[in-house]
Every structure is written in C-alpha cells, then in structure tokens.
TrEMBL record, chain A:
Transmembrane segments: none annotated. This is Glucose-induced degradation protein 4 homolog. Pfam families: Vac_ImportDeg. GO terms for cellular component: GID complex; vacuole. Residues 1-24 are annotated as: Disordered. GO terms for biological process: negative regulation of gluconeogenesis; proteasome-mediated ubiquitin-dependent protein catabolic process; protein catabolic process in the vacuole; protein targeting to vacuole. Belongs to the GID4/VID24 family.
Automatic annotation (TrEMBL), chain B:
It comes from the Eukaryota. This is Armadillo repeat-containing protein 8.
Length: 214, 734
C-alpha cells in the first residue's frame, strides 16, 4: 500500500532452474475474478492505524508465474475516496521466480527475514537458504508464495501524497484462500501486515467466473 | 485532325505479325515469332492484346508443326530453321506464361506445356537433344509455367514421370535442372510425395546444385524446403554424414549477396527447424536468421514483401525466438517499416502479422508496441481496402490486447479502437469478421467501467446477431466475445446484454450442434450468474429454460470442457438463495435416460481434475453451513450416493480437489450430529403424523393436544424438525 514517493518498477522474469513438476498447484481460490477482503496494518511509532483492503485477481498466467489484480484501500486518511492500485505478482514456483527477490532494494537477508514470518515457510527454510529454493518441489505444497508489486494508481493521481514504492511478500493458503502479507519498503515501517480472507460477496458459498483471452 | 490511336496501331501491328505467323514460309514465320517475342517481353499490356488476337493457339500450332517436321535426315539449313522455330515459339509461349496468369491459362488451354515437354525435352528426339538451345528454351518456358499456381500437377507417383524428373535434375544445363527443381517446388504437396522424392534420392542432386549457378542454387533451395516442409520423418531420415555439410552449406548461403537467395536459404532452414526442432538450436544461428530476415525487409521488391512472412514462420509459437527477436530490436524494426506508409498490401499484411507473432506471448513486446504507438497505425489498417490487411491488423490487435496489465488499465476500450473494430463485424469477408471477433474478445475484458462504450457503439447487438450465424466459427467466436464481455460486468451492463441475447437464444446455444459453441454458451451463463446475488435470477427467466438446458446438457454431454462449464453454472447458482439451491438439487438428482445415478457422480470420478474440482464445489455450495436447508440437501445427496463418492476422494492426487474435499468433509461432519437426530426425528415425525388427526402441512405448526405441555413441531420436508418442548412430551402423542 502507498507509503512515500518513489519510482515503481515492473516485475521482471528471473530465469531459474526449470522444473515441470515443481510449479504451484492451480488453486481454484486463486483465480481471476476472486475477491479478498481484510486489513492492512499501517501502524507506525506515532499511531495505530489500519486500512480496510479489498483485492481482486484480474489476471493469472501460471506458466509465467504471473498474477495481477487491483487493491482497494478504504478509510485512507489522506484520501477522499478509496484508493485503488493495480499490482502485478510474481509466483515463487522455482521455474520463473525463486524466493530471492533480486531487486526492489530487497537483499537475500530481507527476503529470508520476511518469508520466515510465515509459519508455512518454516519447512522450506533450509532449502531456500541453500539455493533460493530452486530445487524445491512446490507442486503439492498447500501454500503459494508470491511477491506483489503495485504498478500504478487507478483512480487517483500521483500527487495524492501516497506512494507505492515497496512490495508485499505474500503467502496464500490454498486450503481456505486466506492471504497474509508483509509490506516491504526500506523507507517505511517494517512488517506492515496484510491479512485477507477470501470473500464470497454476499453469496452462500463460492462462485466462479472466467474469461479466455484469444 | 483525327489520328489513329495507340491501341489501334498496336492492333494493326499485332494483326500483321499474326498474319505472318500463318505464312507458309519458314523464314517469314521465324521472323514474326522473333518480333512477337520482342513485343511481349516484360509487357503485360501487349501480352493481353496479343492474347485477345489469339496468338497463343497460333504459336502452339507452329510449335507442334515444327516438332513434327523434325527429320534427322534433313539437311543442315532446314534443320537449323526448324530448331529456331521451336526455340522461338517455346520462348514466346514461356513469355506469355511469365508472371501473367491469363497467359498461363491460355498456354495450358492450348496444350502447349505438353508440346514443349515432348518437343524440347523428351529423349526420343535425338536430333533436338543435341541442340541445347532447344532444350534450354523448352526448360525455361516450362519453368515459367510451373511458377504459376495454375500449372498442372506433376504426378510423381508415375514411374516414368519420376524418371523424367530425375533426368531433368541430372542435366548439366541450369535451366533444365532448374526446371526439375521447379516441378518439385510446385507439385510436391503431400507427405507421400515428399517421401517418394526423398527415397528417389533427389536430395543428393539438389544438394550438389547448391554449389551451382544462381538459378540452380535458388531452385534447389526452394525444392529442398518443399521436400522437408512439415515432414519430421523425412527430416529425421536426412540424418547422416551428409547432413552437417548440407546444413552448413545452406547456413553459408544465408549470407549470399543476392537478397532472394538469402531469403530462400533462410526459408529452407526455417522449414527444417520447424519440422524437427532438434536441428539448428544454436543461438548464433537463430540470431543470424532473425537478423537476416529483418534486414531483408529493406528490400523494396518481392523479397522484402515475403521476408516478413518468413520471419513469422520462424518465430510463430516460439517464445525463445520471439525473445531473441525482441533483443535485437525486432519490434522497433518492424514498426519503422510500418511507418513508411503507402505499403504494398502484401508487405503491409506481412509486417502486421509479424508484429502479431512478436506480441503473441511476450509482455515486453506488447509494451514496446504500445510505447511506440504502433496501435495508431494498426487501427488505420483496420479500414484498409485489402481484406488480408484488415485481417492482419485485427490479429495484431488481438496479440497486443493479451496484455492483462493494459486491459486492466482500459487502454483499448476507447472509441478510436472500438469503432473501426465493431465496423468489421459487418465485413464482407468472413475471415475478417472472425479476426475482428478475436480482437474484440480480448478488448472487452475490461476491469474499468468502460464496457458501456462498447455497448453504446452497437457492439452487443452485432455480437448477438453473429451468435445466430449459420457459420459455426462465427457463432463460436461471437460467443467467446460475449462471454468475456459479461465477465465481472456491472448489473446494468448485464441487463442490457441479457435483453439483447434473450433466454431462449441462450438456451438454444447451450444445445447448439457444435460442442465448442455449447461450451462457450455455458461459460457465458456461468459469468452471467456470478456477481451480485440477484444475477442468479437470469437463469430462471422464461420458466427456467436456461437452467433446464444446462441440466440437460450435463446429463448428455461427453466432453469435459462442457461438463466443467455446466458444473460451474450449477455451482454458481448454488451460492444463491434457498430456492436457487433447491433448483440445482432438482437438476442434479434428475437422472438421464438409462442412467442409474446422477451425472455428478460421473464427474466426481472423472480423470480431469478440473471437472472433479467443479463438481466438489457444487456439493460444497449446496451444503454450505450457513444455509438453513443445507442439512436436508445433504441427506438427499447422501441418499443419491454422492456424499460417499466425495468421501472416497479424500486422497485425490490433485491438491486442489483434495483440499476442497477436506472442506466438504468438514462441512458434512458439522451436520453429522444433526443428521443423526434428524433421522431419529424423521421417524418420530412420521409416527406423530400418523397419530395426530390433523393433516400435516409440511411448513405448519402442529399443536399436539395430547401433549401435556405446549409442543410445537415444525416439519420441513420431513427432513429437519425443530421442536420446542416446554415440558416432557406425552408418549401417546409421539
């Protein structure tokens, strides 16, 4: 979520070890159209603050380890309306992306420090420290690890006083569609937490729609 | 002062020549032939004029007479004139056929191709065979004929034909061997023919011709490419000690000083690579090919026109090649050519298709296109006179609009793009309509609120009209666009689309004769009933004909893609109100003819994990803990054997299915206790109803007189009974 002025950059592909077997599973709760809602804790030393957040997945290309969508932050104090941003995600699949970010001012130490905050990462730690997780088989692991990087503001100008300099380390639970994340930006308060649950938007159960690009 | 017109002069001259062609004097005839040849060479207009005057049959007649007049015992002078007449008449006929389709037709109609073949090349003419001029003239003429698509098909299966072909290839004359190669390039179409030619050993000769003259080299390159095209078997048999040399030879020729030769060499390598990707994997060669073709675009003639098509065949569907091409600024180079303007339609088409291929898989290429403002030129091309150019422009737009990032930003949903595209939905060419539908399918995936632009510009009306087309390809692609348009659409937008579509049309499309149309129609309905909960009502419009159609298709379908979409429709409806869920239950529990069990059981057992997932979601949604009727539905699902099938899937090999099944079982377990008490209460209720004198209305309260304290029993479908007992219940009542 927006913190302070900086330049955004698009995720780039990192060629890593290719393994057909170790791509994350296709999870029906992490598909286009799915909505998630929850909060982001934006507390700092001065005050406690949390924004309500809604996320919707708009694009998904598992072959390239790519995901994208929008993030809407409500009750943002410096904004009159909800602030919507467009983000792009890198899925850690040992094929396209590893656990090491390699950009956005995140060092391998930063990476490990953040990933270890997810309990589901613990069993993977030793392998990740050894080779970035390239040799991991994540195909049957019920969690999907990602990095989400906001690219631009959808409904407000860049002069709104908010920024999208950092990125999120994200852990998605395939079991119940819950999302946990930690925002990373060297210039802002550390470990701002994002907690989302899969939203069924007033329905009793989960509804799925889809599109197919030609 | 009136003067004679130019065409009148031509006609006079032409008539004069033709008159002299009929002369009995061989010298006069020969001179007329030479004049005719000089008149028509490189001159299309004159070719047409002489064609209309009947020159071709006349010259064919002369050729025939001359061939018949050949006499080995004749003296040298007569022999020379006959030979010259044959040479000149063959040359005239060849010239008529050169790059002039009407000329080819006339030559073939006159049987001149056979005449030339027999007269100039056949072994039985020992006299003529010693005259290379005759042989060469015949070969040159036939080659021109064989450059045309209208040339007769050469039958390689006939043994004597194959022998003749080999004799041509083995001839020292570049025109004769070139003819042999041309015949192969023109007529070899099937894999059987490719195999026959390969087995006959033509490749050895063709390879040696690579070191010959320019004509031989070019002809050989084309023939080699023809023999290998799309035939991995023949390519794999090519493996041997000679392979490396041939390939190296062709790779060298890629650097030839003649543009056409460079193009043909590149095409040859591309054909080999496409047929058998294990060859030519070296990055250096790949880059060389890419750079070569991009440079060839600079050629102002036909080579430049064709270079982009060759480039497309090199990179199409191959991400690694597209990446390499991007790294050598392929997008920019193609764009620079586009910018030149006033392009020949063939060149324009080729460059647009090359850009479409560049952007087919890589976001970096699409981004580059967008930053260069390529779309401006592409949109202009949507209104081009040539249908091939219009089609190519749509394909380019389709590729670029695969950029989800830009779809999210609504980059394409503006009048500049939408208006000319929508116009193409009414194009006279079906191919253009289909191409436009492809682009529109992507552009309407819009996450902003700009879908209304498309609707306002009449897009929906046209799409719905096209979904009723007799042509199933058009129907299918129109539905694809509508499906994408409805994805996450706002209520008002959905309403407008549904009003245009109507429930009856949707129901009939779900039952379309084409399975792929059925699939898209179901996917459309799936999207239609998603979103706000009131969207579910659409499926119940017109007495629920859509829902009935969905249920019917599920019971009879055998294609997984249809079943998946159908199950998601039902699964989505099952997230609605109680009545919606019950309607889904009715559909699921209806048996198909001769089927002992619900179709959902078949889906739960499918090999396709996507179908298993969809089926489990439907069960999950029907038994959602927050819904009051869920436990009752669970009992019904249990009685239908569905619950036990789900339980058996606890170790499903697909993680997604396994996780959904786990959730389902947790849901089932939450009802277990109430299931047990429900069974007991069901039994007791029946007894109670029997005891009581009142007729039981399933949803009514039953005051039980003989109960000592107040006891109100609510009965709902005899499945769930909520009872409130103030004191102990009188055993007589119960």
């Amino acid at each position: 979520m927006p913190v302070r002025v900086a330049e955004s950059s698009a995720p780039s592909q990192v060629s890593g070890a290719h393994s057909e077997e170790s791509s994350p599973p296709i999870c029906s709760l992490l598909t286009v159209g799915q909505a998630f809602s929850g909060t982001q804790n934006v507390s700092n030393l001065q005050k406690e603050e949390a924004w309500r957040v809604n996320v919707r997945i708009q694009g998904c290309d598992l072959e390239h380890g790519y995901l994208c969508g929008t993030m809407e932050a409500l009750n943002v104090p410096m904004a009159d309306t909800p602030v919507v941003t467009f983000w792009e995600g890198e899925i850690v699949d040992a094929k396209n992306y590893t656990f090491y970010t390699g950009k956005w001012e995140a060092t391998p130490e930063d990476d490990i420090r953040h990933w270890t905050k997810f309990p589901s990462f613990a069993p993977l730690l030793s392998r990740v420290e050894a080779d970035g997780g390239k040799s991991l088989d994540l195909s049957n692991y019920p969690y999907i690890f990602m990095r989400w990087k906001e690219q631009y503001f959808v409904n407000v100008g860049t002069d709104c006083g908010l920024t999208i300099a950092g990125f999120y380390y994200v852990c998605f639970s395939c079991s119940d569609g819950s999302i946990n994340g930690f925002y990373y930006d060297p210039n802002s308060s550390p470990f701002q937490k994002l907690e989302l649950k899969c939203a069924n938007e007033g329905r009793s159960g989960f509804s799925f729609s889809s599109y197919e690009l030609q | 002062m009136p003067t004679t017109t130019a065409s009148a002069v031509c006609t006079t001259v032409g008539n004069n020549i033709l008159l002299r062609l009929t002369s009995g004097e061989r010298d006069v005839k020969l001179k007329a032939l030479r004049e005719l040849k000089n008149q028509i060479i490189g001159n299309r207009t004159k070719k047409l004029s002489f064609l209309k005057l009947g020159a071709v049959p006349a010259v064919a007649g002369i050729l025939s007479d001359a061939v018949s007049a050949v006499d080995v015992a004749d003296n040298d002078e007569n022999d020379r004139i006959v030979k010259d007449i044959i040479v000149q008449s063959a040359a005239v006929l060849g010239s008529f056929a050169c790059g002039f389709e009407a000329g080819v037709r006339a030559v073939l109609d006159a049987g001149a191709d056979i005449l030339i073949q027999r007269g100039c090349l056949v072994e039985e003419m020992p006299l003529l065979k010693s005259y290379m001029e005759v042989v060469d003239a015949g070969a040159r003429s036939l080659k021109m004929i064989y450059q045309s698509k209208m040339a007769p098909k050469y039958d390689f299966l006939q043994e004597e034909n194959m022998e003749f072909l080999l004799s041509l290839l083995n001839n020292e004359s570049e025109n004769v061997s070139g003819l042999g190669a041309s015949i192969i390039s023109h007529s070899c179409k099937t894999s059987l023919e490719q195999k026959l030619l390969f087995d006959a050993g033509v490749l050895k000769r063709l390879t040696s011709l690579l070191g010959g003259s320019l004509i031989q080299r070019d002809a050989s390159l084309e023939s080699i490419a023809t023999i290998f095209k799309n035939n991995p078997e023949v390519v794999s048999q090519f493996v041997g000690p000679d392979t490396g040399r041939t390939l190296s030879c062709i790779i060298e020729i890629v650097k030839d000083r003649f543009a056409r030769t460079r193009l043909l060499a590149s095409l040859c390598l591309i054909v080999i690579r496409n047929a058998s990707p294990c060859y030519l994997q070296d990055v250096g060669i790949k880059t060389k090919l890419i750079n070569n073709l991009l440079e060839l675009l600079d050629d102002p003639g036909r080579v430049g026109d064709e270079a982009s098509f060759a480039f497309s065949s090199l990179i199409a569907e191959k991400e690694d090649m597209q990446k390499l091409a991007f790294e050598v600024n392929g997008v920019d180079k193609l764009y620079n050519h586009l910018q030149k303007g006033s392009l020949h339609p063939r060149r324009f088409e080729g460059i647009l298709l090359a850009l479409a291929d560049m952007c087919s898989k890589l976001e970096c290429c699409r981004s580059r296109c967008l930053s260069l403002q390529v779309l401006k030129l592409v949109v202009d091309a949507l209104a081009h006179d040539s249908s091939d150019v219009r089609s190519a422009a749509c394909m380019c737009l389709r590729s670029v609009s695969r950029s989800i990032k830009n779809l999210s930003a609504g980059s394409f949903m503006n009048e500049t793009i939408v208006i000319p595209l929508v116009r193409l939905l009414d194009d006279t060419s079906t191919a253009v309509q289909v191409a436009a539908l492809g682009a529109i399918s992507n552009i309407v995936v819009d996450f902003t609120t700009r879908r209304s632009t498309f609707i306002r510009l009449g897009g929906v009306k046209l799409l719905v009209q096209l979904s009723k087309s007799m042509d199933s390809t058009i129907r299918l692609n129109a539905l694809r666009a509508l499906r994408n348009l409805i994805f996450l659409a706002e209520d008002k937008c959905k309403e407008e689309i549904f009003m245009e579509l109507t429930a009856s049309l949707l129901a009939s499309l779900i039952c379309d004769p084409e399975p792929s149309v059925q699939e898209q129609a179901l996917a459309l309905v799936r999207n239609l009933v998603d979103g706000r909960i009131n969207s579910v009502e659409y499926i119940f419009a017109e007495d629920g004909i859509i829902l009935d159609a969905v249920g019917r298709q599920l019971r009879i379908a055998s294609k997984a893609e249809i079943e998946i979409q159908g199950m998601y429709v039902l699964g989505n409806v099952a997230t609605g109100k109680e009545s919606h869920k019950e309607a889904v239950m009715d559909q699921l529990l209806l048996r198909a003819e001769n089927k002992a069990q619900s179709c959902i059981i078949k889906f739960l057992q499918s090999n396709d994990s996507r179908l298993r997932t969809a089926a489990v979601w439907a069960v999950l949604n029907l038994t959602c803990s927050s819904s009051p009727g869920s436990s009752g539905r669970l009992v019904k699902l249990h009685d239908a054997g569905i619950v036990s099938h789900v339980k058996n899937m606890v170790n499903d090999p697909c993680l997604d299915v396994k996780l959904r099944v786990k959730t389902a079982l947790e849901q089932f377990n939450s009802f277990d206790d109430s299931l047990a008490s429900t069974s007991c209460l069901q039994f007791l209720t029946v007894r109670a109803v029997g005891e009581l004198s009142h007729v039981v209305d399933p949803s009514s309260k039953i005051p039980c007189d003989s109960i000592s304290n107040s006891c109100y029993v609510y009965v709902t479908d005899f499945c769930v009974i909520y009872s409130h007992v103030a004191n102990s219940i009188n055993s007589q009542c119960l």
